[in-house]
Design brief:
By secondary structure, this protein is α/β, with parallel strands linked by helices. It contains eight helices and 13 strands. The radius of gyration is 18 Å and the shape is globular.
C-alpha cells in the first residue's frame, strides 16, 4: 500500500478482506506494482472461495481447476508460503499464465500438475478447492458474461463435468477435510444441483464472510424441491456488494 500511496494511486481497502483493495484507476493491470508482483488484478468477489477454504500454513491443499492462478496465489499468501499447494490445470494452454502468476507473485509453495480434475489420481489433502468451469453469468456486470446466451441446456451440459470434479475432490480430501465448490454463475443447475449430488459423501457448513452480503442457496427450482441444507451455500449478487456474481459452498468430508 505504501507503493500505491507513493505513486498517488487511489484505493479503498475492502471491508471484508484487509488484503483486498479496490483501485480507483483505469487499466490497473498496467501499474508497475502489478508487473512487479506487489498486487494482482482480479474480480474482488473471486477472492471469496479461498477465504471460505481457510487454508492454514503447513497444510497440503489442492486447487483442482487452478489457472490463471488468482486463487492459487491467494491461498499461498494465506498459508504464508508454507506447506504445499498442488495447482492442477488440465489445459496445456492455460499452464503458462498459471506458472507466470505464481512466479510473479512469489508463490513458492506451489507445484503445478496437468490432469483432468475428474481423474486426478490420488492424494490425501487437508483442503480442496473446486472453482469449476461454468457458464460465467456472474461476469455480466463487466460485459464479459453470457446471460444473453445462457440456457438451461448449456448449464445441464456443464453439470456432468462439475459433478465429476466435485465428487473427485471429496474423494481426494482426508476424512474431515474441507472442500469448497465455487462458480461465477447463477444457474442452480451448476450450483445447488451439483452440490446436492455430493451430500451422501459430505455435509455442508454455513458460508458467511463478515462485511459481505450474501443470499442463501436455493432449495426450490422449477417446481423441484432440493435438500434444505443447501441454504447454507452462499450466492453473491452484483446489486448487494457492487461486485460480480458468485456461488460458494463449503463441504466437510464424512
Amino acid at each position: 500500500m505504501e507503493r500505491l500511496e507513493a505513486e498517488a494511486v487511489p484505493y479503498q481497502t475492502l471491508g471484508w478482506y484487509p488484503f483486498g483493495l479496490r483501485l480507483g484507476v483505469e487499466s490497473p493491470g498496467k501499474l508497475l506494482e502489478n508487473l512487479l508482483g506487489y498486487i494482482h488484478i482480479q474480480e474482488e468477489v473471486s477472492m471469496v472461495p479461498p477465504l471460505i477454504l481457510d487454508p492454514r500454513p503447513g497444510e497440503i491443499v489442492l486447487d483442482l481447476c487452478a489457472s490463471p492462478g488468482s486463487k492459487t496465489t491467494q491461498i499461498s499468501q494465506m498459508m504464508k508460503n508454507r506447506g504445499l499447494i498442488i495447482a492442477n490445470e488440465p489445459s496445456l494452454a492455460r499452464i503458462a499464465p498459471l506458472r507466470s502468476n505464481c512466479e510473479r507473485l512469489g508463490a513458492l509453495n506451489v507445484a503445478i500438475t496437468r490432469y483432468d480434475g475428474r481423474r486426478f489420481p490420488r492424494g490425501v489433502f487437508d483442503r480442496v478447492l473446486v472453482d469449476a468451469p461454468c457458464s460465467a453469468e456472474g461476469r455480466e456486470r463487466r460485459g464479459q458474461g453470457t446471460l444473453a446466451k445462457s440456457s438451461c441446456k448449456r448449464s445441464i451440459g456443464l453439470q456432468a463435468l462439475q459433478i465429476g470434479l466435485l465428487k473427485n475432490a471429496i474423494r481426494l480430501a482426508k476424512p474431515g477435510g474441507v472442500v469448497v465448490y465455487s462458480t461465477c454463475t447463477y444457474a442452480p443447475e451448476e450450483n445447488e444441483m451439483v452440490v446436492e449430488r455430493a451430500l451422501d459423501e459430505a455435509r455442508l457448513e454455513q458460508v458467511a464472510i463478515p462485511g459481505l452480503r450474501e443470499c442463501p442457496g436455493i432449495v426450490e427450482w422449477s417446481g423441484e424441491s432440493l435438500n434444505d441444507d443447501l441454504k447454507k451455500c452462499a450466492r453473491y449478487y452484483p446489486h448487494l456488494n457492487d461486485t460480480g456474481g458468485f456461488f460458494v459452498a463449503r463441504l466437510i468430508k464424512s
